[in-house]
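User: These chains co-purify. Model them together.
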Amino acid sequence: MSSNSKIFFNNKKREKYSNIAIGLNTLIFMKKHNFFAGPAVLPEIVKTKASQAALDYNNTGLSIMEISHRSNEFVAVLDNTEKYIRTILNLDDNYSVLLLTGGASTQFFMTAMNLANKNDSIGYVDTGAWSSKAIKEAKILSNVEILASSKDKNYNYIPYDYNIPESCAYVHLTSNNTIFGTQTKKWPDTDKFLVCDMSSDIFSRQIPLEKFGLIYAGAQKNAGPSGVTIVIVRKNILGKIERTLPTILKYQTHIDKKSSFNTPPVFPIYVSMLTMEWILEKGGIDEIAERNAIKAKTLYDEIDSNPLFVGTANKDDRSTMNVTFLINDPNLEQLFLDNCTKAGIVGIAGHRSVGGFRASIYNALEQESVDTLVGVMKEMAVKVG
Amino acid sequence: MSSNSKIFFNNKKREKYSNIAIGLNTLIFMKKHNFFAGPAVLPEIVKTKASQAALDYNNTGLSIMEISHRSNEFVAVLDNTEKYIRTILNLDDNYSVLLLTGGASTQFFMTAMNLANKNDSIGYVDTGAWSSKAIKEAKILSNVEILASSKDKNYNYIPYDYNIPESCAYVHLTSNNTIFGTQTKKWPDTDKFLVCDMSSDIFSRQIPLEKFGLIYAGAQKNAGPSGVTIVIVRKNILGKIERTLPTILKYQTHIDKKSSFNTPPVFPIYVSMLTMEWILEKGGIDEIAERNAIKAKTLYDEIDSNPLFVGTANKDDRSTMNVTFLINDPNLEQLFLDNCTKAGIVGIAGHRSVGGFRASIYNALEQESVDTLVGVMKEMAVKVG
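Assistant: Joint model of the two components:
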C-alpha cells in the first residue's frame, strides 16, 4: 500500500480530510472541475465578461442589469444573440429564434397549445423523465399517442423501431436524456415535422435541421445560465390552431415583438450571447462536436476498462453530454465521492431519482476536467482493485 | 449670457459636445444618474456582490450561475430571498412567497386562470396601459367588469369613486402606473380580496396587507434585475377553480415545490436576494418610504416652481416612483435632454407612447441623483427662463 493510499483507509486521516473536503466551499485554492447537470459549467471567458458587465457594461458606468431593454445597447445584445444562434445552426429565414423564459417545462405545454388543436393527436417518443413530463402536459391540451417507450428497461436505451401514424400532427422527441445518460442518434424518417426538447444537447453536434419544426432548450446546460429559454421555430407551422391563447403564450407574439413583448431576462440573455460568441470563437459546431466526442470517448473508455465501474446506458445510445455510471461495490460510493471532492470535482452524484454517478460533460467542460475524473477512477482501481 | 450658457446656444460648441454626450457610452468618467423605468438602478453594493458572484461565488471556485439549483448553496439563496421578503412585508404563514418568471405580463393571465372560473366576473380598475393589458388577458379567460377608468383624461388620475358588485370574484388593481406617473394612495373598502400588480412600487411603502389576496411584481424596478417575478399569494384563495391547467401555470405547484418546480432563474434570484438584503440594511420599508417621499418632494417641488416645466399627473395621485413631466416649450426638449446627458443623467425620456419626460426614482436611486436632475432644471430656467 502506498503512502497515498493510506489516506483512503486510515479513518483518522479520512476524518481530517473530510473537514476540508465536503461541499463546494472547500479546497478553495484548487481549480474546480464542474460536472453539474445544469445549471452547469460556463467558459472562463464568459464568466469574466459577465462579471464585468454586472458591474459596468462596456464603460457605460451602468450595470447591464440597469439599462432599459429598449436601449440601443440591449437591443444589440438581443440582435447578436439571435445572429450568433443563426450562424451556429446555419438557420435560414424560415426559422425564428426566440429568447423566452419558463424553461423546457413551459415549452412542454406551449408546444401542444400552439401546434395542435384539442382533438389533434401528437406522437411522443418516451425516453425518460423529461419526455414523461412533456407527455403529461400535452395530454391536458390534446390527444397523445405514445409511439415508443424505453420505460421497460428504466430508459437505458433509445427506441427507434416505431411507426408514425398519419393522424399525428407532429412528433415530439427528447434528444438527450440527462438522468439516464442516453441520446438520440438517428432521427425518424417521416414527413411529419419534429418538435424536440434539446435542453441538454443543443449546440453540441450537427442536426438535420430540415426535419425540425420546433426546437426548444433551457439555456442552463449548453447555452448559458438558467433564466432564458431558446425556441427555434419554423414559421410555417404556426397559425393553424383554433384555441384562443393568452398573448404571451403565443409564439407569434414573440416573433412579432422580437423577444421583447415584455421585459426579457436581460442578464441571462447577455450571458447566453457570450456563450454563443465562445462557441463561434472555438470554431462552431463541428469543432465543438469533435471536442465533445473526444471527452465522451475518454470517459466511456475508462468506464469500460476499469473493473470498479459500469455504465448504465445501452452502448449505442450513450450520451456525449451526460455520462451515467455505477460503482460495482456500493460500499465504495462514498470513498469515490470523497476522492472526487479532493480532486476538485463537483456535481458528480447521479440524479436524486436514480442514484449512482453522472458526469455532465457539456460543451464548456474542458478535456482537463474529464482527464482529472478519469485519473481519480484509475487511482481507485489501483488502490482497491 | 454666461460663458457656460454659450454651450447651449453656440451650435458649433453643441456639435462638439454632441459627439461625446449622446448615448450611454459617453462621459465615462462621470457618475451616472440612472432614471430608467426598468430595468432600473440597482444599489452599488448589490452590483459589486453580483459581479463577484458571477465570477466566483463565496470562494467556491464556481460562478453562482454554474451551481445546481438543488445545491445547498442555491437553496440557501432561495430561502433567504423568501425570508427577507417575509421580513420586509411582515408576512405571516397565510401567505406564500413565490419566485417565478414571465413578468407581470404572465401574471395578467395566471391570476385570472387560477382565481376565477370561466363564468366568474372579475372587477378591474383601469388606470393605464398596464391595467388595460391585464384586462385584455383576463377577458380571454373570464368575465371582466371595468369598475372605473381614468382613460377619459389620458390616465392622469386614479379613480376612487366606484362600487364593487357582489358578483365580482375579486378586484384587480395596478398600484402604480409607470407610464402616466400616477399611484394608488387609497385602497377600496371591500370584503373582496384585491389582486394587485405592484411591479413598479413593491417594497416602496407600507401597504394594508390584509386587503390583498395576491400581489405580483416583475423584479426589475424595485426588487432586483429582470428575469424574476415575485408573487405573494394568500393560500386560502387558491384551489377553488374548475379549470385543468398545465402544471407550471398553477400557483399551487410553485408553493408545493418551493419555487423549484423547474430550474429557477438562479442569477436574477440571487441579485433580488441582495436587493432585499439592502432594503433591510437600509432600515426596511419605513426608512425606504421616507427616503422615497423626500426624493419625490424634491422633484415635484421643482416641477411646480420652475416656469419651464409642468407635471402631467393629477397632484393628489402623483407617483413617488415615476415622475412624469413636460417642458412647456417643445423646442427646448432636445436641449434639456442634452443638458441631462452632460450631467450624467440617463433614462429620462418619457415612455415611447406618451413622450415628454419621466424620472423613475425607485428605491435604489440616491437623493444625489434627484438633486442633480433638479440642478439641471434650475440651471435651464436661469439660462432660458
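Residues 5 and 379 of chain B are 9 Å apart (CA to CA).
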